[in-house]
Amino acid sequence: MKYIPTKKPYYYLQIIKKKSVYNKKLFILKIKIWALQLLLLLVFAFLSYKLAKNALKPLQESILTLDKFAKDLIHDLNTPVTSIKLNMKLLEKKEECSQNLAFQRVKKSVETISELHENLTILLQEETFQLQEVNLCKITQEILQTQQQIYPGIRFTQECSNFTVKLNERAIKQILQNIIANACKYNVTNGYVKIYTKGKRLYIQNSGPKIVNPEKIFERSYSGDKRSSGIGLDIVNRLAMAMKIEIKVKSDDKSNSFIVTFAHN
């Protein structure tokens, strides 16, 4: 109710409005305001999406081009890398080559290139990983047999017979190959490499030397040794993340341990 003064003194015009009508109109007004705000929000969201999409399109095209180039490059490198490895094996049979220090350095470089090529080949297949039941103990046994020929001075032991996990076989083999090869490469004289399991975990242990920064060894730019580029363990980490595998490293003055935990078990 409201009073409005008139031209006559002491006279007022009385206006009465029902509260229900007032509340109804107020509610409708609020609905219109909310609807307008929602519409404006949707318009801004759509415009932001279109602008972001147009801005990121060149970047996306560049990534796809780079990915295709990398795959083509790795594929084209397969033939020369295989040819070099075969020729190295032929030359190794000759006594004057097998005992030559320069030849041994070249051989080591070829092995590094071959390992990197294999790592990148598997990494580029990350998006199309096919998972299957894999016996890890069988894989580690095969890797140890190969490493025994390369490092006859190291004592190898495996306490593992049947540890089955659902993984991509090529990827997990490459992960274990890298870790075990490093356990052999960075070891003490007459040292050991031991592989065993506990629950969902696979342990790969060697006799040192102590890793200075174990929390950094999976970083791409980090390498604790001048002989290593650090790329191998970075690829190991990326393959592990793709299959939801956790890898932890523990190091002290007596031993180093890589603890591999599997989510798919």
TrEMBL record:
EC annotation from Swiss-Prot or TrEMBL: 2.7.13.3
Keywords, alphabetical: Cell membrane, Kinase, Membrane, Transferase, Transmembrane, Transmembrane helix
Biological classification of the source: unclassified sequences, metagenomes, ecological metagenomes
Membrane-related topology note: Multi-pass membrane protein
Pfam families: HATPase_c, HisKA
Location in the cell: Cell membrane
Organism expressing this protein natively: hydrothermal vent metagenome
Protein name as annotated: histidine kinase
Residue ranges constituting the Histidine kinase domain according to the UniProt record: 72-265
Alphabetized InterPro entries for the sequence: BphY/WalK/GraS-like, HATPase_C_sf, HATPase_dom, His_kinase_dom, HisK_dim/P_dom, HisK_dim/P_sf
